[in-house]
Write a structure and sequence with these properties.
Number of strands: 0
Helix content: over 70%
Distance between the termini: 47 Å
Strand content: under 5%
Largest sheet: none
Radius of gyration: 19 Å
Oligomer: single chain
Number of helices: 11
Order of helices and strands: HHHHHHHHHHH
């Protein structure tokens, strides 16, 4: 990300975070409880998302993430304080970016394709987690009636449900083909050469487009239907597996 663009974007993001935090400070008890239920899912989603980036880069020959301690499932190695606050409160956020050096990739793929593989690894991990969590959720409903009827069981199912939605949301959001999101590199190899050249050389414009979509709330309107659709399909799959 260009330094000037980063300063502008972070400045606006911080302002949005402050406004949102102030809103939550005056929220109802139910909203704050919902926030607590969301936190475990956020930590899981970001940790596994960034780990997947690091793991993919490592397998493609770049040891940069390994040297920086990113091949880890410790949330503290992947959490960006501002990013996690935004994901919790605004439902659009990020983890600490995994740094890679494309020059270190082995030559099984072009650097461009390898970059796309590393980028898509994060969203794919989130979708896999959503499926696994859905199967756990449905298994509890199917076989743990005595448990989920208790307070502890109800809380557990609620936390798992929120974690499913957060993972789907993070996966879909990061597939938007705009910098600085993963989707901008995922779709780059399939673009025609002239379009690709123009895209790379005008990347700063897309940062502004992304920011405008975010600030106006249009990003949420665009991806919410996709999040709802994918979450419903995953839940339907889980219900089918367990005959619910």
């Amino acid at each position: 990300m260009y330094n000037s663009n980063r300063k502008i974007i972070y400045g606006i993001i911080i302002a949005m975070a402050i406004i949102t935090l102030l809103n939550y400070a005056t929220s109802s008890q139910g909203a704050l409880l919902s926030l607590l239920f969301t936190l475990p899912g956020v930590l899981i989603a970001i940790t596994f998302h960034e780990f997947a980036h690091a793991y993919a880069a490592d397998k493609l020959g770049d040891d940069t993430p390994r040297r920086q301690g990113r091949l880890s499932l410790n949330p503290m190695d992947h959490i960006d304080p501002l990013g996690i606050l935004m994901l919790i409160f605004v439902h659009i956020g990020w983890g600490k970016p995994v740094q890679v050096d494309p020059r270190n990739y082995d030559r099984r793929f072009s650097m461009e394709v390898a970059d796309a593989i590393v980028s898509i690894a994060g969203p794919i991990m989130n979708f896999i987690l959503a499926i696994v969590l859905t199967l756990i959720y449905c298994a509890i409903v199917k076989f743990g009636a005595a448990f989920y009827m208790t307070t502890a069981g109800s809380v557990t199912l609620t936390i798992i449900f929120y974690a499913i939605i957060v993972n789907v949301g993070l996966g879909v959001f990061n597939l938007i083909p705009l910098p600085p999101l993963d989707g901008s590199k995922v779709f780059l190899p399939i673009l025609p050469s002239k379009v690709k050249y123009w895209f790379v050389n005008n990347e700063h414009i897309f940062y502004m487009v992304f920011l405008a979509l975010w600030v106006t709330g249009l990003a949420g309107r665009f991806i919410s239907p996709a999040i709802d659709f994918i979450a419903n399909q995953i839940l339907t799959f889980g219900q089918f597996i367990f005959r619910l």
